[in-house]
Design goal:
The protein contains 6 helices and 10 strands. It has about 210 residues and is of the alpha/beta class. The chain has one domain: TIM Barrel, CATH 3.20.20.70. The strands form 2 sheets. It has an 8-stranded parallel beta barrel with strand order 1-2-3-4-5-6-7-8, surrounded by 4 helices. A two-stranded antiparallel sheet has the order 9-10.
């Protein structure tokens, strides 16, 4: 278990985040995405309710990891949703303390800006429990901004541990990003949308094709 990755994939894993519709989740799984992300932070334009979340979870096969995204929400709420929905992981996108780790009943993805990586307490957390996601962290919107991060800085971190690369990824740049950073996985939200939370199926196909391209 100590070396088992969060997502199972023969190559670079893909997480499609900010899913709000069952049909988008089903297509993501059919195209080979290893995970989908459901945003439970109410301030996000991609936020879903519990009934929406249940319908989305029911639309994907068991081998697709469902990740719940939270921002500085009460840990009791995070745990309750993780248990109720059977989440494979929770993604923490705020200022959450690593002290909560032992209470969380599943794997954890901690979103960090590349600039805060070196000083974050999450870096020393057990790697079998915590995977780091590198993103452009906006102080108001948190993630899903479509802003690209510093790939060179991300590559240095990816040389030390498994990381999920996020931030401004699209069908036309994800292959370049993978080549530059060598991440374990990539995460996309706005790059495959036609509106916040509404995925564009052609863009999803193009993104997956670009990731899988030799």
């Amino acid at each position: 278990m100590a070396n088992e990755p969060l997502f199972q994939s023969a190559s670079v894993a893909v997480k499609i985040c900010g899913v709000t519709r069952p049909q988008d989740a089903a297509l993501a799984a059919a195209l080979g995405a290893s995970a989908i992300g459901l945003v439970f932070w109410p301030n996000s334009p991609r936020a879903v309710t519990m009934p929406q979340a249940r319908s989305i979870v029911d639309a994907v096969p068991p081998f697709t990891t469902v990740v719940g995204v939270f921002v500085d929400q009460p840990m009791e709420e995070v745990i309750r949703m993780a248990v109720s929905l059977g989440l494979g992981a929770v993604q923490l996108h705020g200022h959450e303390s690593v002290d909560h780790l032992q209470r969380i009943p599943c794997r954890v993805i901690k979103a960090l800006d590349v600039g805060e990586y070196a000083t974050s307490e999450w870096v020393s957390a057990p790697r079998e429990r915590v995977t780091i996601l590198l993103d452009a962290i906006d102080p108001v919107r948190r993630g899903g901004t479509g802003q690209q991060i510093d790939w060179r800085a991300a590559a240095r971190i990816a040389g030390q541990r498994r990381v999920i690369l996020s931030g401004g990824l699209r069908p036309d740049n994800v292959a370049e990003a993978i080549g530059a950073v060598r991440p374990y996985a990539v995460d996309v939200a706005s790059g495959v949308e036609r509106a916040p939370g509404v995925k564009d199926h052609d863009r999803m196909r193009a993104f997956m094709d670009a990731v899988c391209r030799p």
